[in-house]
Amino acid sequence: MSVQSVGRVTRPEPQTGAAPDAPPGSGLLQHEPLIFELDDWDKTGVDFPPPEPNEDLEAIDLAGLTRESAPALPGLSEPETLRHYVRLSQQNHAIDLALYPLGSCTMKHNPRLGEKMARLPGFLDIHPLQPPSTVQGALELMDTLAHWLKTLTGMPAVALTPKAGAHGELCGLLTIRAAHEARGDGRRTVLVPTSAHGTNPATAALAGYQVEEIAQTADGRVDLADLAAKLHDDVAAVMVTNPNTCGLFERDVIEIARLTHAIGAYFYCDGANFNAIVGRVRPGDLGVDAMHINLHKTFSTPHGGGGPGAGPVVLSAALAPYAPTPWVVHGEQGFDLIEQAVGPAREAHGRMCAFHGQMGMYVRALAYMMSHGADGLRQVAEDAVLNANYIKARLSGAMTAAFPDGPCMHEVLFDDRWLDETGITTLDFAKAMIDAGFHPMTMYFPLVVHGAMLIEPTETESRRELDRFCDAMLELASAARDGDVERFKGAPYHAPLRRLDETLAARRPRLRWTP
Amino acid sequence: MRYLPLTDADRSGMLAVIGAAAIDDLFSDVPVAARLASPVDLPAHAGELAVERALGRLAARNRAAGAGPFFCGAGAYRHHVPASVDHLIQRSEFLTSYTPYQPEIAQGTLQVLFEFQTQVAALTGLPVANASMYDGSTACAEAVMMAARITRRKKAVLSGGLHPHYAEATRTLAHSAGIETFRLGAAIDAEDAVLAAIDADTACVVVQTPNVFGTVTDISAIAAAAKAAGALTIVVTTEAVSLGLLKSPGEMGADIAVAEGQSIGNGLNFGGPYVGLFACREPLLRQMPGRLCGQTVDAQGRRGFVLTLSTREQHIRRDKATSNICTNSGLCALAFSVHMSLLGGAGLERLARLNHARALTLRSALAAIPGLEILTPRLFNEFAVRLPGRADALVEALARRGVIAGVPFSRLDPDAGMDDVLLVCATETTTAEDIAIFSEALAAEVGT
Asked: φ and ψ at A318, to 5 degrees?
């Protein structure tokens, strides 16, 4: 036993016994109750400025319109508040901790330059309704972002305001609807492939359309024959994700666009996977009429635990006149903002939201684009696709790729055939990945593949991290085949909590704390 | 390139493992005609320093609210955000995580959402709140769609006191669903017109308090009339700080309350990202849009949280979903929740009283200027003023004097015949000196 001069043991005895059961909040992972359960919460972490000498905070001239008492909500000092939220944060997986291979979500590194830029007072601390003469830099930033998006997609126009991907889809379909209605054309159907993300049919329904599904071929693409059979003069739009949700490029995309246009319909492309082709393919060259771009995916604005996102929509010349308000124009005295549709712009379909969209996300996305440049963005697509194909190559011996022939794009799709007769499901396997230190891939999506496992590594992973991930996956796969069922059925063992009872949560909803 | 870890040696080694000769082989499914041979016509990559310089130049061409006297409200409010709020939302574990699809390793985000829902429920006076919406205006539109689903009626009455952008965003969305929106004429005190417009076809009435002119409104009578007609009452609040002092929407009979939560924890950001608050009565829960976080237990009986009632949502229901919404406004909801935890209920009330007092100080100052008329009868922290001339011209003139005077109502609604109406706002960030400079400049402009 080594001992310091003051007598403290510096080398522990080797330990072989199992660890005793740990109480909640052991080691560095602190247990943290709900903020409402801290019993001494009647304080405040904010010191207010004093009222002006003439002001009386008790003199409220709003008889009968005020609350009887302050809202019964906890207030904590700053140190207590910091501890509460930092402890909670430590129960989250994050990109900054390890690979986060959620297919179709594009969990790539979020450059901190964007955070710094978005917090410049000239961006953070400006009001949406200040006079345009006092926000020329903000309007120029929106105009510059629009230029980058239009150039990268080969499209002539963009509506910036949608606040998320699904909001962008809605904007695109409402634009299409406005274009049809302007011709007195009341088409009522939107065609969507069976592999589509749930937001596609939900958005089409929200935009007032009936949804018809298009079948998929055995190699994971749109079935052209089925599409042709379903295209009739009541079809307003065809909505296709490209690269699609199986991680494959739609080889017949130009033909899909041609067939769609031939019956007077518009071709909507879900741009959720634009990160796979940015800088190498321009959707405008494929015949696309409208496509939303998830700035939080391709251009890496942070996912923030589920938003805020941003979903600008690029538009073809045919659809541009029907874009929503507002938009930026080059006026006589610099940039101006058109907020009310007048004159020819009355064709516009309306307003997607108050104000001008997600400025904070525009700043971050533009910082990302300028950092990469035209050359770097092309490299983004290439490395994203390379990383996904590398995982596909390394794992295909142990797991069954849903579409083994040919390359995948930025994500690789496996099914659960390789788990047949192990008694282990995709869910079990995913939970065991947590014990291996990784966030699971997207599970059971797309719906067209049984027990789907959709893995998207993104371009910001090193080969070392990819190998660490593949080694862990191969070891898990071998344990599954060797019948180590308990390791999977009981997983995760090493997360802050074991598997959660979602049925109970839905059957007896408890959606807020009550005393 | 600083964000790309692969080296050229990595790339060629990986291509060899894949069995591809070149990167182009991996793009072989792209039609030849659509393959770009070289980068598009945009600038090449740039270092941090260069990007900072370029964006810094743009930022410098904007007049920040904090740079001088500033009086804009009308749906976005300048409040002080404590430094610890901005620090916490930049924690990697909050900033770089996603929707909590795997609850075992997302309890941090989930517990925050559960606490957020509890806070929103307490502020709105309604029992259930969701995990947030994109912003107040889209929350308003979703509430109207929800009311139409519940009542199976197709007419929505929008008060003349509703923020015109909210009315437009609601009309855009509702129109496609076959819901007709009747927006009543812009009015400072709009509630009698709302009462008169309720009929047996009405799905919902949408009333804002404090309204876009700043008028604090008791909606109890409207809620009662709507209930008697089988319609739902949707109460909109754009200034969330007011919820600390004013009677809650639930207390006044709201079926659904929506609010813009930006005021608490979030900066102005030129209009976004913001955070929509959404709460309703318990029986309406299954028709609610958006994400919900619920309490449950894990396999060992320990309390935990999960996303729940997802059978309402698009990934399960597809074209039968209650909404197409996929995300919420997670990080902005976190900022709201942290700021709310620092304030506490008592702190929020004190903040609200400070705002109210400062607005009364501003009102006294403006009321003393000859030719100006204060239009708002009962105000929280903003109000409407009638000027002797066009408000937009005056705002431009004062901007040249370094004062951001407020929002001309004509910018929100050019057809209302209210070109001489200016909307002004004061918060705890407004100083007595700001008010003095503003009144002096305003008196000078109006006097000339």
From this structure: -65, -30
Residues 215-234 of chain A with CB under 8 A from chain B are none
Q: Domain A115-368 class?
A: alpha beta
Q: Cα dist. B333→A312, A508, B110, B112 in Å?
A: 22, 25, 12, 9
What is the per-residue pLDDT for A23? Answer: 65
Q: Which of A104, A68, A80, A76 is nearest to A30 (CA)?
A: A80
Q: What are phi and psi of A473, to 5 degrees?
A: -65, -40
pLDDT score, position A485: 96
Domain A373-495, CATH homologous superfamily name and number:
Aspartate Aminotransferase, domain 1 (3.90.1150.10)
* Chain A neighbors of B45, CB-CB under 8 A: 371-373, 375-376
Cα(B158)–Cα(B160) distance, integer angstroms: 7
> Residue A510 and residue B294: Cβ atoms within 8 Å?
yes
Partner B contacted by A458 (CB < 8 A): no
A-proximal residues of B, 179-208, CB under 8 Å: none
If DSSP codes are grouped into helix, strand and coil, which group holds residue A1? coil
Answer yes or no: are the C-beta atoms of A277 and A158 closer than 8 Å.
no
Q: Does B24 touch chain A (CB under 8 A)?
A: no
Query: Measuring CA to CA, how many Å separate B137 from each of A190, B181, B208, B325, B387?
Result: 27, 15, 11, 14, 28
For chain B, list the domains and their CATH numbers.
67-80+345-447 (3.90.1150.10), 83-338 (3.40.640.10)
pLDDT of residue A17: 77
The pLDDT of residue B316: 72
Identical fold, A115-368 and A373-495: no
Intervals of chain B under pLDDT 70: 448
A163 touches chain B (CB under 8 A): yes
Whole-number pLDDT of residue A287: 97
pLDDT digit string, tens, across residues B354-373: 999 999 999 999 999 999 99
Tokens found for residue A325: 């308000």
Low-confidence residues in chain A, pLDDT < 50 = none
Q: State residue A8's pLDDT score.
A: 73
Structure ipTM = 0.97
Quote the pLDDT of residue A349: 79
